[in-house]
Amino acid sequence: MDNIIERGRLYDYYGALLTEHQRAIYEAVVYNDMSLAEIAEEHDISRQGVHDLIHRCDRQLARYEDKLHLIDRDEKIHGQLNKICDITDDKDILHSVEDIRSLL
After folding, report:
1. In the chain, which ranges are continuous DSSP H helix?
2. Are the CB atoms for 71 and 10 separated by under 8 Å?
3. Nearest-CA neighbor of 52 among 63, 39, 67, 64?
């Protein structure tokens, strides 16, 4: 399950960098949960070809994240926004403003 979630996240961020053919096959696996045989038949390629393409896409998407860190940055920003929300729930507004400034 975690692998599917990770694949989906990587694809959401970097899928546009794949070719149209790669995107079609990768989406069939990640979003449509199709088998290699179903995809192979639909795209008129071998199951081994589908398997190899999926693994190449996995590696390529992971390399993009290793170089660009968009997912890591997004998680960091969401964490800081959650802290700001928690701080603003505090009744001592002067203290909250200082804490928010330190996060920003």
Report:
1. 2-14, 20-30, 36-43, 47-68, 70-88, 93-103
2. yes
3. 39
Closest CA to 48 of 70, 71, 69, 25: 25
| pLDDT tens, residue by residue, 13-62 | 999 999 999 999 999 999 999 999 999 999 999 999 999 999 999 999 99
Length of the chain in terms of residues written: 104
Q: What is the mean pLDDT of residues 65-87?
A: 90
Do residues 51 and 60 touch, judged by C-beta distance below 8 A? no
What are the structure tokens assigned to 24, written together? 């079609």
